Amino acid sequence: MMKSRSIVKTIAATAAAGLLLSGCSAAASNDDGEKSLTFMYRGGPDDKKAYEQAVSQFEQDNGVEVEMIQTTADQYSTKLKAAISGRQIPDVFYISPGEVQAYVKNGIIKDITEHVEGSANIDLENIWDYGVDSYRFDGELTGQGAIYALPKDVGPFSFGYNKTMFEEAGIPLPDPEKPYTMEEFVDVAKQLTKDTNDDGKLDQWGTGLNVMWNLPAFVWSNGGSWLNEDRTQVTIDTPEFTEALQWFADLQNEHKVTPSAGEAQTLDTYQRWMKGEIGFFPVGPWDLATYEDLPFEYDLIPYPVGATGETATYTGTLGIAVANSTEHPEEAAKLATYLSANEEAQQTLTDAGVQIPNLEDMAEEWAQDESTKPANKEEFLQIVREYGRPLPGDLTYNAEWYNEFFTNIQPVLDGEKTAEEYVKEAQPKMQQFLDSANQQAGIGG
Amino acid sequence: MSTITRRSRLHRQEHLTALAFVALPVIGFLLFTLYPLLFSIYASFTNWNGLTAPVFSGLDNYVAMFKDPYFLEAMYNTFFLMIGIPIGLAISLALALAMNRKMRGSTFFRTVYYVPVISSIAAVAILWQWAFNGDFGLINQVLALVGIDGPNWLQDTATVKPALIIMAIWKGLGFSMLLYLAALQSVPRHLYEAAALDGAGAWQQFRHITVPMVRPVTFFLVVTSVIAGSQVFVEINIMTPTGGPEFSSATIVWYIWQKAFDNLQMGYASAMSIILGLMVFLITFIQFRLNRRNQFSID
Description:
The structure holds two protein chains of two kinds.
Chain A: H1 2-25, E1 35-42, H2 45-62, E2 64-71, H3 73-85, E3 92-95, H4 100-105, H5 113-116, H6 129-133, E4 136-137, E5 146-147, E6 149-156, E7 158-162, H7 163-169, H8 182-192, E8 205-207, H9 211-221, H10 239-253, H11 268-274, E9 278-283, H12 288-291, E10 298-301, E11 313-322, H13 329-341, H14 343-351, H15 360-368, H16 378-387, E12 388-389, H17 400-407, H18 410-413, H19 419-441
Parallel strand pairs in A: 1-2, 1-3, 8-9, 11-12
Antiparallel strand pairs in A: 3-11, 4-5, 6-11, 7-9, 7-10
Helix pairs in contact in A: 2-13, 2-14, 9-10, 17-19
Chain B: H1 2-43, E1 46-47, E2 55-56, H2 60-67, H3 69-81, H4 84-99, H5 106-118, H6 121-131, H7 138-145, H8 160-185, H9 189-197, H10 202-213, H11 215-229, H12 234-239, H13 252-262, H14 266-294
Antiparallel strand pairs in B: 1-2
């Protein structure tokens, strides 16, 4: 007994020493008294270029030095969490909406409401509500309450179609104002699925969708949902949900309007779309630069609608948060607002074709620009403004319950299991994960 | 008297220099091995999300582990993938035998087989991800030549593990082959000559001379491959980022990583690491014990 206690003491002492050691190097002031901040972000060369430019301007204007830490997209989350565990938290860093609850509950990020509202540096009116609201949290529900981060960008996941293919097949073009019903969509998709060179093999398909990124649009539009209002119940076992999932699986198994089984999760349909073999395909703002070179004309339309008659889709976002541990909260908040709302940085990123502008007036101008594809860029703005939604996993303490839904879904997509069987099976497992997430967050029963 | 003092001062200085040299790796060990190890043992008994201070929770994590079907499945997957180890060893021994002959271009082939070993695992994983692509992948194109309609390797629960095993064998071949080659070259020629005089055929020579003589290398390779095999992560994370269809390619380290960094369960992840560590230790210990019985020497 004595022995084990002394071991614990030793461990505690070692741990404390470790924390002290790491604390030393986090000293935030330079010799000359200039304040310095660290900014951790992820992204490709385009982001780097835009932010380096913006940050150096910020340094000049504010007499603050900013050290930038860049990682690749897939390493970012791991590195950031390791930094947090080691108490080496950067002053300003990217955050995804799904992390807000955990970071707020554990005191990692700062409530920056007072720095943002009524600040001269940022005009909230001109920033997408969706972007700002994604980082609000009132202690129970995300989406309302105090502001914990500002959007770096918003990512409306729109739907596109191959205009050239429609024209060649003599099918009337879809109306961007009046979305297809699910039946109409299947109908058109069937007409587009064919063997164009008569070799006995299909080489053109109506669509090719990915369950993880595209199923939500159809579930929501059909009136289904993963979660109830107060986010304590997994609601995938409703008829609305089941119907949409079955319809999604049937695209492949029943109607055969997508390329063969199993490919929904690979890049294949993406490559096929770019080769002009697919009629309907999702389009995100990050695709625009790549899609400039497509060998066909394309344009954006709303997703097909289910029982509610209202189109729906997912909209991603990435935020910029300020650490609670920062020694210069004022400057850190200023940097976050600057990066979120700085016109030049936004312009550089938009010109690079990787995102739509954060600033609404700039976005309007960009959408009107007829020199770039697609013509109906306005659809992106409508999504952000009117009908884009967050992924359900981003609304809770962690996304384990939501990921569980996709772990075992393949048999449904392959037609080996009905949607109804699956949701009955998956619901209790997901509920268990959700309960444990809510419990960790100290929310609900 | 004075000479003694001088000498001891000299000694002391030398002593200090030596200590300074020794200190570096020792401090490194304490800081980067022992401390994290002790801390993770401690963390495994806590409810810790990695964001704030851990809260002691006794054996909760360990109890939860054995009720967690994904933990058991990840363990199963990890050990299943080790099927590649004996296959890889057999192939690399065969290759080493081939390379050991005096033939044209053997240096070239040795180099070719070694290239995968020095390539980054991330690059190799991406390469094979393409090769395994159901439609355009190299593997299925080759299979199509002989009239086989290949599966969508990485998307099918039945083929994802074989696919990963094939890749792992390919990647490790060069290293095992090189070690075998070195071992083969140190086998005394006179053993073969004596055996040949006694009328032993090629198979018998291989079975009774070559295999026993390269056994230390086999042992070394088995031990290190099992340890490495229990820590497979990068290729899983790149080739099947969601743990594969129905969790069928999720290895234990991948699952630990997911729990720790995606689901904020650092304490639980620590507990799983501890169990994994104990298992690897136990397996290695057994291997050493078994090997002791097989030791022999020639005088």
